[in-house]
Design a protein that fits this description.
Blueprint: E1 3-5, H1 10-17, E2 24-25, H2 40-56, E3 63-73, E4 76-78, H3 84-94, E5 98-109, E6 114-126, H4 131-140, E7 160-165, H5 168-172, H6 176-185
Parallel strand pairs: 1-2, 1-3
Antiparallel strand pairs: 3-4, 3-5, 5-6, 6-7
């Protein structure tokens, strides 16, 4: 079965490689602006589905995977910082706080009209970081393309007090437990 990852994220690509099934990568053309009144989980799940649908339109016989992640605490959202100053500012806001990283994952098969969507939250409790720790971290690890400015799969784990969730890969950006369940429903044999 032809599998496509609707993402150019190197993190998602590396995670999907764990399932040992060949796949292609296609960049989805999707506006990622949150809608007014939309919660973090709603945004992540809507965008995951929108990315999969956008690519599935051009590849109707493939199973297309879309994913998106929104980090939030209360009504504050923490996207990709884009700059070193942005990453430092985000980590200052998150220090000593619990932040939810909600990852939406979708599988779309346009030919059959089937769509699956799941959301997987991970609660991340940040240590009460001092400015020197934040600056050392941001200078040591490339985090400008990472929601919330921290990579738990790397040095960012040292910034945390605890994590809580059902799928450790969700925090990295592609919840493989949920995705495997969805792919099996579509007839893909795993393992």
């Amino acid at each position: 079965m032809h599998l496509i990852l609707a993402s150019t994220s190197s993190y998602r690509r590396q995670l999907l490689e764990r399932l040992q099934h060949p796949f292609d990568v296609v960049h989805p053309e999707v506006d990622e602006t949150p809608l007014d009144g939309e919660s973090g989980p709603q945004t992540a799940e809507r965008l995951a589905l929108a990315k999969a649908r956008a690519v599935a339109l051009h590849h109707p016989d493939a199973l297309v995977i879309g994913s998106d992640q929104v980090a939030y605490a209360g009504d504050r959202r923490f996207g990709k910082p884009g700059t070193v100053d942005g990453a430092i500012a985000q980590l200052r806001q998150m220090r000593g706080q619990s932040v939810i990283f909600h990852t939406g994952v979708a599988v779309v098969h346009a030919r059959t009209g089937t769509e699956d969507i799941e959301g997987v939250p991970t609660e991340v409790r940040f240590r009460d970081l001092d400015d020197a720790e934040i600056i050392r971290y941001v200078n040591a690890e490339h985090v400008l393309d990472c929601a919330g400015s921290a990579k738990s799969e790397g040095l960012g784990i040292s910034l945390l007090d605890a994590l809580s969730g059902d799928d450790p890969t969700a925090l990295v950006g592609l919840p493989l437990i949920a995705l495997s369940r969805m792919l099996r429903r579509h007839g893909l044999a795993l393992p």
